[in-house]
Amino acid sequence: MSEPTLAGAPAPDPDENRRQVLYWRLLARLFDPEEQAGLESASLAVIEDIGLPAALLDPGASVDSVVQRHPELAPEFDGLMTPEPDEDGARDRAAEVRRAALASKVLLNVFANPPGTVTAEQLSRWQSDAGWLERALGCRPGELRGGRPAGAGRGVSPTGTGHGGPTPDLGRLIPEIGPELGSIEAGLVRRMRLREVLADPALASRLTPSMSLIEQLLRDKDNLSGVALANAKALIRRYVDEVTEVLRTQVEKATVGDIDRSVPPKRVFRNLDLDRTIWKNLTNWDPEQERLYVDRLYYRHTSRKTTPQRLIVVVDQSGSMVDSMVNCTILASIFAGLPKVDVHLIAYDTQALDLTPWAHDPFETLLRTKLGGGTDGTVAMTLAQPKIAEPRNTVVVWISDFYEWRTDELFESMAAIHRSGAKFIPVGSVTSSGRGSVNPWFREKFKDLGTPVISGHIKKLVHELKTFLT
């Protein structure tokens, strides 16, 4: 307990004062780019007093550069804003000051961006700093910004301060933090002379693929040529490969049917059941010669009971659905690689495009999309309905915000698919952040139909499809 002052009030806590100084500086720099001399000098004194480098206060220094010069700090950024509560409920005020200094650095680098044209180097630095913020929130770099599906993060305290109680669930903060980071990144990409950067291989090599960058590349691809187009395709390919690897891991956890013992096992060496063969032939053991004579070989059953399934994915490719378009194109290609799954892919805005011939290759599929325009799902329905040959073995996944032009006509045709026996899955968003807007009229209609809209993380859609297709 603090010693009482002459006036009877508790004495000021020096660590609490240091923490307040750092956060006041953080707020001042976020809302006013001009330095406040008093706060700057006081913050420098705090930083030096607790043994941290002054580079944490340098707005021109990235977190990467600070960590390179002071590698001992790197572990402190991981889970920085997800402190474990003290068992006895007490606050470690000295640790809070240190967290405040490190958290302020990350937050300022991510959220305090100067106006004007953005260079490739500035974008690369911001992406790196945003990755450090995501690590501080207990996530993997790129996870909150969308496009790199991953598991949910841990609990997080927005200020990085532990008060001895449970921290809020990160899942409730992602819908706000993730899209905000994505919005900032998209703004930086728009302010960058992207065509000039792509035309210079040295500058293009500094870019890190992200959803915001891929969206801009897909929108502008028809205006690119030569070196710029080649660099744009390379970035899209890198991004597709990264996301594919994550999604494939989720999909491959599914089983592919029960063992079918009605089908004789293939008599090949790789299927030989050595343990069972030895056990069944033990009666042929010759103790004098110390040899086991094998009368019969036994093989493992590998054939599985599977029913051919048809997966029809319909994706709204209007401007508001780019994240879903990219994720679902990749997801469709993964399911297209599974045995006994016949995948069809349709993209639409006011016109529909059957992308089935390229469904196995998300890179080629994305190059054929044209983002933007209005939304008329009836044109996509015209292509989708004839593909439903055996309703009981068909699943139709429809991804859209469902802000449609001909609402009644489209919903009636969707209800007809459901009544036919096919599984109809309406999806409002398939992003990593889990935020998406869905037309409330359609949401209620689907609920009444018994096919509620799936909204949220792409893992929900993966789970639904695995349940039906396996």
Q: How would you describe this protein?
A:
The chain is α/β, with parallel strands linked by helices. The chain folds into 3 domains: 178 residues, no CATH class; 45 residues, no CATH class; 161 residues, Rossmann fold (3-Layer(aba) Sandwich). It contains 18 helices and 8 strands. The strands form 2 sheets. A 6-stranded mixed β-sheet has the order 5-4-3-6-7-8, with helices on both faces. It has a two-stranded antiparallel ribbon with strand order 1-2. Strand 6, helix 16 and strand 7 form a beta-alpha-beta unit. It is globular. The N terminus is likely disordered.
Write the layout of secondary structure elements.
Blueprint: H1 14-31, H2 37-49, H3 63-69, H4 74-77, H5 93-111, H6 120-136, H7 170-190, H8 194-199, H9 201-204, H10 211-220, H11 226-251, H12 274-280, E1 285-286, E2 291-292, E3 309-316, H13 322-336, E4 341-348, E5 352-354, H14 362-367, H15 377-384, E6 394-399, H16 407-419, E7 423-431, H17 440-449, E8 454-457, H18 458-469
Parallel strand pairs: 3-4, 3-6, 6-7, 7-8
Antiparallel strand pairs: 1-2, 4-5
Pfam family, one: VWA_CoxE
Biased composition (Low complexity): 155-169
Protein name: VWA containing CoxE family protein
